[in-house]
User: Which sequence fits this backbone?
């Protein structure tokens, strides 16, 4: 393996500012959406007292989960000492921080009282997994930023290994914490499962890697730096493994639910009668997010096409959003069983009358906020690679592949 | 709200007389307990646990007196539908502390009615999950939200097994004195805590129920009406499987 040289992202100024401008405009539009929602109150959104977490939470949880997954590439390099991944590590760490900030921003801006963020940062209820998550998120940003420093600064290099291990452990706890946000909701049928936390970890691997692959190939293409097949093929194989594992966990989750009689109604709802949730599950989560990308990356010819690999990564992201949508919104829409053996025939509060699910249709503002979070994450990434020596000059096969001849 | 006012006057008169008896019968079926109510300047302690027994068999179909009384007492109708809102969606967004639920037994077809509100859990999941501690349980068993530190994350609403909480989705034009509130925070039934803190011992819903289906009082006092009724009739907690030890119990569901 040749020596790797890193350099700031040297695309033409014009292109760079153009990219920043586009991302900034998208973020600004999201900003206006937030002002609209906060000024009027949440009644302008699709959320209600039944569906209390809506589309912003889908995007936020997706990004937060993906953030920890994006760090994986770096962890493989530093913790598991795989040389081939080392040149990929700086971008992995930067992306992890950027995605997390994007996700958190959405979460904060959707609060009923976002201006009280300082309260959330200073008043903790240590019984709350949510409070722990606030600490975990802040810690993640700090640790990964330090880790990035150890990579970029020769003087700090001696802390590289330790920082890498710390970041890796922290990301595992962080995703467990995020998954536990749902796992702790004992009253809700769709969430009360121990498998939730490990399932989130597995999902994070796939989501984060998919985003990483897209960003890596786009950033390299834009700057005309060579990115060889060996890197992309290695990553896509990894993606295939993660996607397969996610499918397996989804299967286990639903099978365990089917095993317990009390969850049959919930399973019937997601798997068969849930309308949009059933569609999001089968078409989004299973087909687009699972089977199709799996087929592509392991297909003898499609799996060798960079365009198809790119498409597979996009599918994993779309499927990932669908998965989180089913979990968050579907889990709330399904009526809670309060009176076993009885049917609610009337209620002043839509308690699943005759077993009917709650309705939710996302508003434009909510979706814009979610997309804005992604734009902010990309903005941070773009500025980061422009200012810091994050990207290798070349990841051509003869440079990046430790087994190549030279 | 005539009944309430009368009750209040009588109660005040009663206080003036300074009789130390722990209970007094105001009207047939309405028994008031006074000894346990702590004055405002004294911190509440756990010698009292407020609770309620609701006799669903007395709850008449179509009656919404308790819901109305709660709305009036706590100013829940200080919200008008925002211009341009979809009425159906709005109905799911406006605050409702108490709702009337009609159930049909799947086997026998028997119909029952009951009011459902915050169950004032002894181990409240809402307070457990709240990141800032805005959701909390007072020593006297009342679960409520400190609206000064609630950030409006709605995690408590996700956690409550009874969907007892409302998020304030809109601007509040009139700020009622009894229940301060604002857009972006979460709230729920607080057992008319302003009354309890003023030394009263009834809730608005209880006073309003024409069938006396709601008995409110101190669960820790074996001589309170509610404790006696609980000892006498079979009662249940909704979702007893969650072991939350709710302060609101039901009979005759
Ligand atoms: S019923 Fe809901 S809101 Fe009331 S104490 Fe229990 S969990 Fe909290
Ligand atoms: S909405 Fe308010 S009371 Fe509920 S969990 Fe969040 S901060 Fe606590």
Assistant:
């Amino acid at each position: 393996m040749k020596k790797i040289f890193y350099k700031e992202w040297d695309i033409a100024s014009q292109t760079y500012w153009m990219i920043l401008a586009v991302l900034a405009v998208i973020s600004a539009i999201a900003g206006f959406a937030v002002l609209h929602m906060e000024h009027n109150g949440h009644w302008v959104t699709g959320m209600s007292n039944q569906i209390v977490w809506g589309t912003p939470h889908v995007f936020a949880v997706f990004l937060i989960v993906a953030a920890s997954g994006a760090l994986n590439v770096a962890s493989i390099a530093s913790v598991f000492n795989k040389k081939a991944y080392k040149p990929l590590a700086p971008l992995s760490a930067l992306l992890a921080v950027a995605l997390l900030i994007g996700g958190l921003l959405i979460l904060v801006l959707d609060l009923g009282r976002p201006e009280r963020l300082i309260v959330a940062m200073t008043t903790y209820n240590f019984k709350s997994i949510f409070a722990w998550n606030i600490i975990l998120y802040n810690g993640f940003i700090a640790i990964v930023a330090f880790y990035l420093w150890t990579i970029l600064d020769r003087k700090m290099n001696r802390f590289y290994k330790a920082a890498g291990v710390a970041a890796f452990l922290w990301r595992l706890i962080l995703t467990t914490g995020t998954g536990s946000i749902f796992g702790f909701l004992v009253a809700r049928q769709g969430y009360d499962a121990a498998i939730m936390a490990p399932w989130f970890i597995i999902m994070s691997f796939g989501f984060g890697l998919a985003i990483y692959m897209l960003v890596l190939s786009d950033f390299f293409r834009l700057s005309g730096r060579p990115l060889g097949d060996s890197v992309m093929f290695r990553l896509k194989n990894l993606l295939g493994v993660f996607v397969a594992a996610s499918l397996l966990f989804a299967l286990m989750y639903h099978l365990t639910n089917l095993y317990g009689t009390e969850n049959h109604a919930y399973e019937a709802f997601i798997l068969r009668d849930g309308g949009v949730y059933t569609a999001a599950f089968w078409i989004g989560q299973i087909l687009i997010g699972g089977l199709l990308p799996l087929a592509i990356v392991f297909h003898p010819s499609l799996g060798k096409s960079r365009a198809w690999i790119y498409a597979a990564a996009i599918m994993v992201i779309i499927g990932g959003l669908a998965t989180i949508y089913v979990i968050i919104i579907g889990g709330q829409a399904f009526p809670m069983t309060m009176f076993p053996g009885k049917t609610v025939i009337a209620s002043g509060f839509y308690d699943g009358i005759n077993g009917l699910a709650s309705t939710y249709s996302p508003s434009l503002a909510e979706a814009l906020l979610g997309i804005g979070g992604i734009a902010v994450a990309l903005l941070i990434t773009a500025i980061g690679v422009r200012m810091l020596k994050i990207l290798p000059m070349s990841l051509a096969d003869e440079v990046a592949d430790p087994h190549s001849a030279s | 709200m005539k009944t309430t006012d009368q009750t209040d006057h009588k109660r005040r008169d009663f206080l003036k007389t300074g009789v130390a008896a722990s209970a007094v019968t105001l009207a047939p079926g309405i028994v008031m307990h006074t000894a346990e109510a702590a004055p405002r300047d004294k911190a509440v302690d756990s010698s009292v646990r407020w609770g309620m027994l609701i006799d669903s068999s007395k709850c008449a179909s179509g009656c919404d007196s308790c819901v109305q009384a709660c709305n009036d007492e706590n100013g829940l109708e200080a919200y008008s539908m925002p211009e341009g809102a979809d009425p159906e969606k709005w109905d799911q967004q406006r605050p409702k502390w108490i709702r009337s639920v009609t159930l049909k037994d799947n086997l026998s077809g028997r119909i029952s009615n009951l009011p459902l509100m915050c169950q004032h859990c002894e181990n409240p999941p809402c307070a457990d999950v709240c990141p800032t501690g805005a959701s909390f349980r007072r020593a006297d068993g009342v679960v409520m939200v400190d609206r000064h530190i609630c950030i409006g994350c709605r995690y408590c609403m996700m956690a409550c097994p009874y969907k007892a909480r409302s998020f304030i989705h809109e601007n509040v034009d009139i700020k009622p004195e009894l229940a301060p509130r604002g857009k972006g925070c979460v709230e729920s039934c607080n057992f008319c805590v302003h009354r309890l803190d003023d030394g009263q011992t009834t809730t608005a819903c209880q006073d309003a129920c024409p069938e006396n289906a709601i008995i409110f009082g101190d669960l820790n006092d074996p001589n309170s009406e509610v404790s006696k009724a609980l000892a006498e009739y079979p009662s249940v907690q909704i979702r007893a499987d969650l072991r939350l030890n709710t302060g609101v119990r039901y009979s005759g569901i």
Q: What stands out?
A: The beta strands of chain A are 6-7, 342-347, 391-392.
